[in-house]
């Protein structure tokens, strides 16, 4: 059987710095797969390579056996792999619904404003139905007409996921979705992620909130200084000497 998503020998060099250094791991379909490691370990850079924002220095990203490394972001999105950002990238001035509409258009055109203005009527109706479905999935339908910038932090994060969901993804890459959330928002977001997984979407999750990681992930890969360090279920990773050492060795986030 072909592996669903395989990161193979993935490497990103910035000048003299090996941000990601021959990293290999595989992600199974339908799982929540965590990618953890201390600050600067190379997690976001790995996401940038998987999602097409960076072209790897070397190595491959294989989706169902197809090498997608080096494709443009919208080409990667068209194959079902989309990401959200570590720092919010919502269009604050647009409404919640308009943001979700941008999501429906993500796989087709890199220019997002075409998503709002440049459609014929039929496309627009189909996209709007999908956008509304995404808002409903994330409990945001009652906020469709609000300006995105006016939403609470938790709702903005949920909208970020709704935007990704609106594009019909197979895989979503979530970079620190729990940052800045209060316990209630965290609890709700964990529920949304489980719903997302249970709907058949594979989730690759970068997060420093260890309770969320341990509570959600089926499998966890830990990296440090760009390199693969360890992999296993939550229990295994929580007790893994190399993981504990990596976090205690100078990182501000301690598991
Ligand atoms: N565009 C870039 N140019 C140069 N160096 C970069 C660039 N992006 C990241 N780096 C460096 O690459 C290393 C890995 O960074 P990355 O952002 O991937 O880490 P991270 O694991 O996501 O960290 P954090 O948990 O703090 O978000 C760091 O040393 C960082 O300073
Ligand atoms: Mg990061």
From TrEMBL:
Q: Which residues form the signal peptide?
A: none
**Annotated Gene3D superfamilies:** P-loop containing nucleotide triphosphate hydrolases
The record ties this protein, via InterPro entries, to:
AAA+_ATPase (IPR003593), ABC_AA/LPS_Transport (IPR051120), ABC_transporter-like_ATP-bd (IPR003439), BCA_ABC_TP_C (IPR032823), P-loop_NTPase (IPR027417)
Record key words, sorted:
ATP-binding, Nucleotide-binding, Transport
SMART domains (UniProt xref): AAA (SM00382)
Question: Per UniProt, what is one GO molecular function of this protein?
Answer: ATP binding
Among its keywords, does the record have ATP-binding? Answer: yes
Q: Which residues form the ABC transporter domain?
A: 5-250
Record's CDD domains?
A: ABC_Mj1267_LivG_branched (cd03219)
Organism domain of life: Bacteria
**Name of protein:** ABC transporter ATP-binding protein
> What organism does this protein naturally occur in?
Sedimentitalea xiamensis
Q: From which lineage does this chain's organism come?
A: Bacteria, Pseudomonadati, Pseudomonadota, Alphaproteobacteria, Rhodobacterales
């Amino acid at each position: 059987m072909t592996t669903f998503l395989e990161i193979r020998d993935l490497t990103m060099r910035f000048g003299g710095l090996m941000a990601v250094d021959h990293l290999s791991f595989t992600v199974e379909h339908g799982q929540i797969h965590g990618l953890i490691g201390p600050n600067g370990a190379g997690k976001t850079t790995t996401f940038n390579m998987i999602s097409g924002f960076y072209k790897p220095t070397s190595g491959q990203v294989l989706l169902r056996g197809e090498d997608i490394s080096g494709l443009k972001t919208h080409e990667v999105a068209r194959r079902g792999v989309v990401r959200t950002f570590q720092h919010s990238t919502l269009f604050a001035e647009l409404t919640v619904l308009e943001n979700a509409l941008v999501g429906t258009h993500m796989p087709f055109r890199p220019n997002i404003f075409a998503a709002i203005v440049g459609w014929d009527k039929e496309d627009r109706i189909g996209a709007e139905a999908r956008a509304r479905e995404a808002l409903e999935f994330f409990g945001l339908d009652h906020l469709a007409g609000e300006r995105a910038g006016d939403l609470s932090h938790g709702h903005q994060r949920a909208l970020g996921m709704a935007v990704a969901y609106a594009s019909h993804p197979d895989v979503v890459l979530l970079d620190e979705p729990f940052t800045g959330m209060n316990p209630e928002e965290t609890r709700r977001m964990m529920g949304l992620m489980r719903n997302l997984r249970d709907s058949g979407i594979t989730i690759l999750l970068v997060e420093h909130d260890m309770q969320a990681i341990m509570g959600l992930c089926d499998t966890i890969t830990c990296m440090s200084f760009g390199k693969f360090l360890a992999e296993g279920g939550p229990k295994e990773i929580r007790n893994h000497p190399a993981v504990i050492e990596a976090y205690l060795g100078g990182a501000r986030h301690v598991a």
